[in-house]
Amino acid sequence: MAEFDYDVLVIGAGPGGYVAAIRAAQLGLKTACAEGRETLGGTCLNVGCIPSKAMLHASEYYDAAANGTMESMGVEVKPKLNLDKMHGQRRDAVKQLTGGIEFLFKKNKVDWLKGYATFKDAHSVEVAGKTVTAKNIVIATGSSVTPLPGVEIDEKIIVSSTGALELEKVPEHMVVIGGGVIGLELGSVWRRLGAKVTCVEFLDQILPGMDDDIRKEAHKIFKKQGIDFKLSTKVTAVEVKGKKATLTMEPAKGGDSETLEADCVLVAIGRRPNTEGLGLEAIGLEVNKRGQIETDHDFRTKVDGVWAIGDVVPGPMLAHKAEDEGIAVAENIAGLTGIVNHDIIPGVVYTFPEIAGVGLTEAEAKEKYGEVKVGKFPMLANSRAKTNHEPDGSVKIIADAKTDRVVGVWCIAVPAGTMIAQAAQAMEFGATSEDIAYTCHAHPTHSEAIKEAAMAVQGKPIHI
After folding, report:
1. Which one from 297, 342, 443, 463 is the annotated catalytic residue?
2. Is 443 a catalytic residue?
3. Is 394 annotated as a binding residue?
4. Domains parsed from the chain with CATH numbers
5. Beta carbons of 164 and 186 less than 8 angstroms apart
6. Could you tell me the CA-to-CA distances from 121 to 137, 310, 406, 422 in Å, in that order?
7. pLDDT tens-digit series, residues 245-267
8. How far apart are CA 414 and CA 352, in angstroms?
9. Does pTM surpass 0.85?
10. Is 180 annotated among the ligand-binding residues?
């Protein structure tokens, strides 16, 4: 049997890759992780989930002080924006967390191979001019911003999500191309800090993939907060002159074009898998039509000894999905049973309020189960939301009418991202709406809205 440098080599140190490497090392496998970025953590920790949440949280404080929310509760302040300091606390959070992963690599004896890896064959890669061999290689290279054809991102006037985190001043008018999670989160940051924000979306509603009721309600909330929307609208060109950009748009179904001027344009139309430059052709591995690497249930590719997880494989491009797959793939390599239930992957939009969902939308549930029962409860009737001056939002629970099993939960609430964990766990255990309805929830908490929505499935909520 051939001798290898490592039992496991993970390509990429994002949430999927670094977790896979640590788990493999914990299971006694000699492990390395190749990463070309100067810091570990991938897009998520460096320029994605983590820094955007730092800006979202800080901008919420500013907005609460500026829009009179704090004043209505008896806290009278006149806020002054120090954008440099706000950026500083964001960078500090990133530095601490990326440094934390480096510490965990050392603690678990994971070797960090600094450089981008390219396959030479199924058991060897080249990293920074050196050949490294491994019995198992895990592709965890993540994803990058999908470009808009004909539009060049300069990260100054036309920016990606990365550039939108680094703006040196608040734009007068930011146009966000794309009404998905990233566009709405970053658009919310700059709207709170004083920018006029217009969101242009090709589809007829924002937040594709989420439940229709939630999408419509979210749209109303964002409009109330001051974000302008141009739905069913296609951007055909963006021209930069000096420090201004002019967008040319037309109705998605055809019609007369119109123009819009902005001093910042955020392109947020999605992400695509990072597979270029990996040398997949050297091992005979092809990608599907979406550029993804297909795997079996255990995350094996069709090439023996090569595995893949995270944004490069089918499924939602979410850090927590990649992390779960990272644990599962390491356990499968070690001969254990690593499983990810892809039917129960929660998704969260970290706006104010947050928007979260897990499982099926009502339309999907009807298609799969035929008859469904739906329970809804407004946050306006939730006592904690009332005392916190957080009336916007609702909880919606969808159950299979025959079995009462919960198949989807959707909510808009300030802590929706935390609340959805209860729903995901309940669904993982096959809970019925009755199970949730008869579980005692602490009072007063936002989570009581989940209990009430479950009671509404039974036709008997208490507080509406």
Report:
1. 443
2. yes
3. no
4. 6-145+272-333 (3.50.50.60), 158-269 (3.50.50.60), 347-457 (3.30.390.30)
5. yes
6. 10, 22, 46, 44
7. 999 999 999 899 999 999 999 99
8. 6
9. yes
10. yes
